Amino acid sequence: MEAHSTVATRREIPSALIEDARKHVYAAAVRTPLVRLNYAGPPEIYLKLENLQPIGAFKVRGAYNAVRLAGNRAQDGVWTVSAGNAAQGVALAARIVGVSCRVLVMDTAPAAKLNAIQRLGAEIVKASFDKCWQALSERTHPAMEGFFVHPFEDEEFIAGNATIGCEILEDLPDVEAIVAAYGGGGLSCGIASALQVANSRARVFAAEPETASPLALSLAVGSPQRFEAWKPSWVDGCGGKSVFPRMWDLAHHLLAGSVVCSLDEIQRAMRIIAERNHVIAEGAGACAVAAGLSGKCGTGKVVCVVSGGNIDLPKFSELVSTAAE
Asked: Checking CA distances to 142, which of 119, 163, 201, 297 falls within 20 to 30 Å?
């Protein structure tokens, strides 16, 4: 594939926006624990348990921050596009501030996420992955109206995610690397932005499944790319079809690299997390742990962000029971 001619710029998330998020996100989110993975290293793996958020995923941080800062622009309701977790975050944020919410949800979303969205009172409109990805790029869809909350691209959402990085540095100041799943990039780039503000030397890595790894391709080529070999999988919370140019402007200078994991490696990581720490991790969260276990993020203290735990329990049982030991 030929590289795009776009010249990347160095986008930054304002430190003041991150500090503001730290003061307000806990109206919706909780400060999640950081625990050691009970698994012999190296590396020395720690788990940042974002699956323990009220919606079972980290997205509540960015979603609430974005909806809160929208103010009067959200009075006619909010909408977002999601594989499931961002939809829950925006739905909860909308409920807290008292506005309506509609969500365009990828038809690959598991029932566990759809049921949770409905419990939070949001209206669901299903669409194909391609149509949803197009709506993310164009920031519009004919079935949607109101204030659009982009689930990863805007600085308000990213600043909310950055609070995860702040918490990690407070709990483990000598962390050497942090790895987080990359779907659109809001999580990994948010964490990296927090570390940059704190002048931390820790490196931040993205983790992607082999079926959908546009960031690894983009880093290899040197410009934002589309991943033509994209395939759907049970790792539904990460792995997009392309790297958005505005996210590339963050990722290319904030992230140390992308670790691509096979589905077998992710499945094995899911089993290890369940067996050793009794934690339910969805595919994206297990992808980060698989990347950490690979040693490609370093052999010292590595924090893996368990970004969510929203997976249908029958599917979870099938995956952990058939994974390699």
From this structure: 119
Q: Where are the alpha helices (DSSP H) in the chain?
A: 15-24, 59-70, 85-97, 111-119, 129-138, 155-171, 186-197, 214-221, 245-254, 263-277, 283-293, 313-322
pTM for the full model? 0.95
- 87-132 tens-digit pLDDT: 999 999 999 999 999 999 988 888 888 999 999 999 999 999 999 9
Interstrand relation of 44-49 and 34-36 (parallel, antiparallel or unpaired)? antiparallel
Could you give the CA distance from residue 205 to residue 136 in angstroms, rounded to a whole number? Answer: 23
Token pair in block for residue 250: 């963050």
Give the pLDDT band (50/70/90) at residue 29: very high
And the tokens for 321?
């029971």
CA distance 185 to 58: 13
Tell me the backbone φ, ψ of residue 79, rounded to 5 degrees. -145, 160
Give me Rg for the CA atoms of the chain. Answer: 18
- Give the pLDDT of residue 7: 60
